[in-house]
Specification:
Helix 11 runs parallel beside helix 19, helix 15 packs parallel to helix 16 and helix 16 crosses helix 17. A seven-stranded mixed sheet has the order 3-5-1-13-10-11-12, sandwiched between helices. A five-stranded mixed sheet has the order 7-17-16-15-8, sandwiched between helices. Strands 20-28-29-30 form a four-stranded mixed sheet, sandwiched between helices. It is an alpha+beta fold. The protein contains 20 helices and 30 strands. The chain starts with 5 loop residues before the first helix and ends in a 7-residue tail after the last helix.
């Protein structure tokens, strides 16, 4: 299958937000807080406002005067004792206090971005410094500085799930127990495309047109409309190409709102493009979770109970997903692929003086997979079980599907043992000991790590997924949905679904994501759900197109519609046939064009829509990593990596494998280097550029062997489960378990991410490692 997107991207013909320009546009620059916690006593922008070429300086007072609302965030469900999330007002431009380094304070608009930046340097801000708190533990300690009066003790939310009494009873009588606390460190998303925003206000219609990266126009439009108080139809969101997303492009940001107000005040389009340093400081971060797990086992290694005590640092404010990640997302699949009779989890969420946390590839699912699989491996090592056999003994069996977990999640289908067995064979698990001996002769430590994991594909927030088919004036077919690709290959995959359903080639079909003038109900891209949602709707659309066209084909063929058959891309009856696109062109030629505008919708008789409501499903897999470690330097070399994924039915194998590769490397980046680290005393970010922040490198991975074991689900029309986050969910525990396998024999009992060469060398040195196993 030829990927339709690749020629455009590889030849530089993509169109990203920064590529859009409008007549008469002005340029914005954001002045940001240079300290983590302080009262704002005064902002003096007089000198900046008087500079030649400067048109406007906005502050928090201007946003307050406009009456626009808080930036979005929160959860709809209740916590412990019926409590609601304690959510403070989140101003797009700080007014009375700043709560993290990089928080926007003022927006300068000028004839050029350079002029705006120069003018911003003349704004003086008078602060009264306040002590900062970084991380959950510091934020919730007795006597910690209070960040928001709405959240006493900086605790935003407490949540629990499962049966606490049943778990305590099981632990009280369990012959074997294991406990392990792990940390999933704070990360910067760093999509390859810097965030940008261009807003234009039409005073006559009272509407905005905005250009921005997004993961779907519906969600972005809803948030921008809710903040500004405009009806949703008064906000047009334009997104064409997106250079990476990973969850951090899902939501409206402070800069978006400030730029919109500037455009409205000035009557000119206003454009803002972030620098990479700005993104380190102010784009939503990911992870920042601590998970302490305990597992109870009988003497044969069968799991009796599981409990977690989880803590989440969501940063300075509550984003739309930060609290959910730290509570429901890390507990909904807390049992992993295992049959565990009793489970309980408590999760607490706190505010701190760091950038807000939101969705980042997997949004909690890789973190809980990491915690479970590290815990199971730790139990195997502590109590003398083979790690593969311990898992095999506790898998949810096929005959138990659909399986309801002890805290109420129902898995639809899966063959976990078969997936693991395929991975063990592909990775040559049995041959590891011989490879370890060869590494030892070379003075290197070798380890192999196994992870069998499960995640949930998001059910979505829209009531249904809707897609459209529209024929243009030439009889070509245009497909529409609100999902938004950021590298997943939607143009290829969705068109292929329709061509297979119609039995035609794709030359006359074009896919459009997020047409701002077409009101389509549906979910954006996120949670590995685009294929199972929009893709399933497109499969239904294929049949709907045939049904819609059949009466017209019958008229062309001069027969009754009941006599017409559709086969191989054509309608046939009585020895005569007419192709689908031939019919479309004939009807287009005879249909009057109501508009002289060539871009206006064309009412073709074969236009139609399809829709469906598709439930959650549970992708799963087994990843096996093999590493060598140089004890003299602490460097980790991933010498082999194997994946076997159950993503349900696969449409485009190249896209699936590409997403697995990317997800694995994103996970490897977290294991071996990435860390958005703050100074605990000052709250300053210590890694504000790629000089300080380690990104995953291609040479960190020797090669990857990818296998598949698809078990189709019945929860959607395609039988697809999703794959966008599986690579990361498997990589975190597989690579860490491999590292622990390598260093445990020489006395290192615990490590956590990131395992940098320095950290690993120090751990090995501390146990007196001589360089051999």
């Amino acid at each position: 299958m030829q990927r339709r997107e690749d020629e455009r991207f590889l030849t530089g013909k993509g169109r990203y937000t920064a590529d859009w320009n409008l007549p008469g546009q002005l340029y914005a620059y954001v002045l940001r807080a240079d300290r983590a916690h302080a009262k704002i006593l005064d902002i003096d922008a007089a000198a900046a406002s008087e500079r030649p070429g400067v048109h406007l300086v906005l502050s928090g007072a201007d946003l307050a005067e406009a009456g626009w609302k808080s930036l979005p965030g929160g959860v709809s469900y209740e916590g412990v004792g019926g409590q609601k999330l304690r959510k403070p007002f989140w101003p797009p431009l700080a007014r009375h206090r700043v709560h993290y380094v990089g928080e926007p304070i003022a927006l300068v608009v000028a004839d050029s971005a350079v002029l705006a930046q120069d003018a911003a340097e003349e704004i003086t801000v008078e602060y009264l410094d306040l002590p900062a708190v970084i991380g959950f533990e510091d934020a919730t300690r007795a006597g910690a500085p209070q960040l928001h009066e709405e959240a006493p003790g900086n605790l935003a939310f407490e949540y629990e799930t499962g049966d606490r009494a049943a778990v305590e009873a099981a632990f009280a009588h369990a012959p074997l127990r294991t406990r392990l606390a792990v940390h999933s460190q704070r990360l910067a998303g760093n999509p390859i495309e810097p965030r940008a925003f261009l807003a234009a206000w039409d005073a006559e219609s009272g509407s905005f047109t905005v250009y921005t990266p997004s993961q779907g126009m519906n969600g972005m439009r809803a948030q921008l409309a809710d903040i500004t108080g405009l009806p949703r139809e008064k906000v047009r969101v334009v997104t064409r190409d997106v250079g990476g997303s990973f969850g951090v492009r899902s939501f409206a940001y402070a800069e978006h709102i400030a730029v919109m107000l500037a455009a409205k005040k000035l009557g000119h389009p206003v454009k803002w493009v972030a620098t990479r340093s700005e993104l380190f400081l102010s784009e939503n971060h990911g992870r920042a979770l601590s998970l302490a797990g305990e597992l109870a086992l009988d003497r044969d290694g069968r799991f009796l109970a599981l409990r977690f005590d989880d803590c989440a640092d969501i940063g300075a404010y509550a984003t739309p997903f930060g609290t959910q990640i730290g509570t429901r997302n890390i507990t909904i699949t807390m049992g992993g692929v295992y049959r565990i009779p009793a489970m309980y989890a408590r999760a607490r969420v706190a505010y701190s003086n760091a950038a807000p946390v939101s969705a980042y590839r997997g949004a909690g699912r890789p973190d809980i997979a990491y915690a479970i699989e590290r815990l199971v491996d730790h139990a195997a090592a502590e109590h003398g079980f083979d790690p593969a056999e311990l898992r095999r003994r506790n898998f949810v069996p096929v005959q138990a599907m659909p399986y309801k977990t002890a805290n109420g999640t129902t898995y639809d289908c899966g063959e976990f043992e078969a997936v693991m067995d395929k991975a063990l064979a592909l990775a040559d698990w049995r041959g590891f000991n011989a490879r370890r001996e060869r590494s030892a002769l070379a003075g290197r430590l070798r380890g192999i790590g196994l992870a069998t994991f499960l995640e949930i594909s998001a059910p979505g927030v829209a009531p249904k997924d809707e897609v459209f088919a529209r024929f243009d004036r030439n009889g070509n077919l245009n497909l529409y949905a609100v999902s938004q690709s950021s590298g997943q290959g939607h143009e290829t995959t969705f068109v292929n679904i329709v061509t297979e359903a119609l039995g035609v080639t794709d030359e006359s079909i074009r896919f459009h994501e997020g047409d701002p003038d077409l009101r389509v109900v549906g979910n954006g891209t996120g949670g590995s759900r685009s294929l199972l949602g929009a893709g399933s709707a497109f499969k239904l659309l294929g049949q709907k197109l045939i049904e819609t066209a059949k009466p017209h084909a019958a008229a062309e063929l001069g027969v009754d519609a009941a006599a017409v058959e559709y086969r191989d891309g054509a309608f046939q009856a009585g020895g005569r046939r007419i192709g689908l696109f031939e019919l479309a062109r004939e009807l287009a030629a005879r249909t009057p064009d109501p508009s002289p505008d060539p871009h206006a919708p064309y009412p073709h008789p074969m236009d139609c829509a399809a829709e469906g409501s598709f439930g959650a499903t549970f992708p799963n897999g087994c990843h096996i990593a093999e590493v060598e470690i140089d004890p003299d330097t602490g460097e980790v070399d991933i010498v082999a990596y194997t994946t076997v994924d159950d993503a349900g039915n696969v449409i485009d194998h190249a896209s699936v494998e590409g997403q697995v590769h990317g997800g694995v490397m994103q996970g490897v980046g977290q294991v071996l280097g990435e860390h958005a680290l703050y100074d605990r005393e000052t709250g300053q970010l210590l890694c504000g550029s790629f000089i300080d922040y380690a990104m995953p490198r291609a040479d960190w991975m020797r090669g990857m062997r990818c296998g598949a074991h698809p078990v189709p689900t019945k929860s959607n029309a395609l039988g697809a489960k999703g794959v966008g986050e599986s690579g990361t969910s498997g990589a975190l525990p597989a690579v860490m378990n491999a590292i622990m396998c390598a260093v445990r024999p020489v006395g290192v009992r615990q490590l956590d991410m990131p395992v940098t060469p320095d950290r690993l060398w120090r751990a090995l040195s501390a146990v007196g490692n001589a360089g051999t196993a």
